[in-house]
Known about the structure:
The protein is an alpha/beta fold and 320 residues long. The protein has helices at 2-29, 55-66, 107-110, 114-120, 145-162, 175-182, 204-214, 219-234, 243-247, 267-276, 294-297, 299-312; strands at 71-76, 82-88, 96-100, 124-129, 168-173, 192-198, 254-259, 281-286.
Amino acid sequence: MEALYIILGSLAAVVILVLLIAFICFYLAFYVPKKNKTPKTEYDLPQDEIYVPYHDKMIEWIKEVRTFKYEEVSITSFDGLTLRGKYYEYKKGAPIELMFHGYRGTAERDLCGGVKRCFTLGRNVLLVDQRGASKSDGNVITFGINESKDCLRWIDFIVEKFGDDVKIILCGISMGASTVLTVADKDLPKNVVGILADCGYNNAKEIIKKVVKELKLPPNLIYPFIKLGARLYGGFNLEESSPEKALKNCKVPVIFFHGDDDAFVPYYMSEKNYNACSSPKKLVKVEGAGHGMAFLIDPDNYLKEVAQFFTENGVETVVQ
């Protein structure tokens, strides 16, 4: 009997250890602490050294966007969260870019040049703060799993608000790019006329294992705990869907942008997405651009490529 107790005790200790490690992984990878309502600085800018030389340009864009008129909008997600965004109108009836920011980012920080770019292309813009970011509800980031479901709800909102003839272009950067790509195989309404994906990863598992390896930890050992933490504490399956899988059944044109100096989401991940895509597509490599910096590095070519691609695919676009 004593031996049985020892065995049961050992098993219980193992289970507790597994659950503890899974929780730590969940907390570090997916959990968003309660937001501080008082910003530490006037401008929330990425602080990695590659971005510092471009802070002045980012601040210039943010200042400019803050002078534009906008309408605050919101939706209720499939799981009851209130998600918020800002709608900027360039011209009534123009196509609307529905834009999603990256991992632990905000719409203003990650997409500070997005409104300017869209206005230059004659488009309206809906900037979305994803679940867990800025004024949107939520405390869990799901690497595009639940965020892609939010994207579908935002599409429905736009059609309901602007009518059956509205044209929608899905746009995202980093995790936001992977978010919009993950809906590519869904039964999208005819209103969705294209996707713009900037530096997105091909699936959550691959990007997470890459980051774990860079932390000098064994990715094949740690990843199962991360996946378990997502399931137990976040309530989602990290491998439920992925951009690479969804693109195999994509029916709308997709243009991919990616810097060849991206140290966070490697360029080859956009290559994988591009190769998987079954619809009209183009991959634009931006020489010397780090993560999320394609438009910062070469805005003129970025605009030219977007205008040309969408015009060729039935969405007339002219650089203003």
